[in-house]
Amino acid sequence: MTEMLPFGRLLGLAEWDALPEDDQHRRLEVSEGVLMMTPRPMPVHQRVVNRLAVLLDEHLPRDWSAFGEVDVLVTDEPLTIRVPDVAVTSTESASANPARFRAYDVLLVVEVLSEGTRRVDRVTKFSEYAEVGIPHYWIVEPWGKTALSAYRLGPGGYELVSEYTGDSAIRIDGIATIPVDLDALAERK
């Protein structure tokens, strides 16, 4: 893969699109033109992501759809593409089957914390998603008693709406209320 990277300059969308599919168990993102590689999530993390994406999709109105691990174009210049664990976008946007969603098409992003991504999810992505106007951001902590922090975009950035544990009804303003047993998201059934 290294022969395809534009060393000495920032990665652009054309180079991103030309990258080969990754079969090395890594997740690729671009942050301000710099290619970022992190290990693929562990099984419990993936279980939480998959269950949450399905749960959201089942409880959202038909004009909204939830997806796990899709590319979201945060900014064109410098190029920033993130792969949130779950993204909710309009069904109309999804029906166009884009290679990536643009930030303005996204209603909610969810990041499930991993050992190696806590700071990126809590600080970097937190500010990036707010700066481009994604209305809702959830952070899920899957260790021990699973917890979810729900943020809503306000005038100064994301504001904490509520923190949830156990059986909860998580509200997405004006869209839906999602019933979820947070502890069951990570458990083997």
Outline the structure in words:
The protein has 189 residues and is α+β, with helices and mostly antiparallel strands. The protein has one domain (41-70, 80-186): tt1808, chain A (Alpha-Beta Complex), CATH 3.90.1570. Helices cover 25% and strands 39% of the residues. The protein has 5 helices and 13 strands. It has helices at residues 13-18, 43-59, 91-95, 118-131, 182-186, and strands spanning 26-31, 34-39, 64-68, 72-75, 80-82, 86-90, 101-102, 106-112, 136-141, 147-154, 157-165, 167-172, 176-181. The strands form 4 sheets. A 6-stranded mixed beta sheet has the order 3-6-8-9-10-11. Strands 5-4-7 form a 3-stranded mixed beta sheet, with helices on one face. A hairpin with a 2-residue loop joins β10 and β11 (157-165).
Attribute tags:
single chain, 189 residues, alpha+beta, tt1808, chain A, 3-stranded mixed beta sheet, 5 helices, 13 strands, 25% helix
Strand line-up in the sheet with most strands: 3-6-8-9-10-11
Protein structure class = alpha+beta
Reported for the largest beta sheet, the result is:
6 strands, mixed
CATH architecture: Alpha-Beta Complex
Identify the quaternary structure here.
single chain
CATH superfamily: tt1808, chain A
Write the CATH fold name.
tt1808, chain A
Q: What is the highest CATH level, the class?
A: Alpha Beta
- Which stretches of 5+ consecutive residues score pLDDT under 50? none
Order of H and E elements: HEEHEEEEHEEHEEEEEH
Report mean pLDDT, rounded to a whole number.
Answer: 85
Number of strands: 13
Shape: globular
Topology:
Layout: H1 13-18, E1 26-31, E2 34-39, H2 43-59, E3 64-68, E4 72-75, E5 80-82, E6 86-90, H3 91-95, E7 101-102, E8 106-112, H4 118-131, E9 136-141, E10 147-154, E11 157-165, E12 167-172, E13 176-181, H5 182-186
Parallel strand pairs: 4-7, 8-9
Antiparallel strand pairs: 1-2, 3-6, 4-5, 6-8, 9-10, 10-11, 12-13
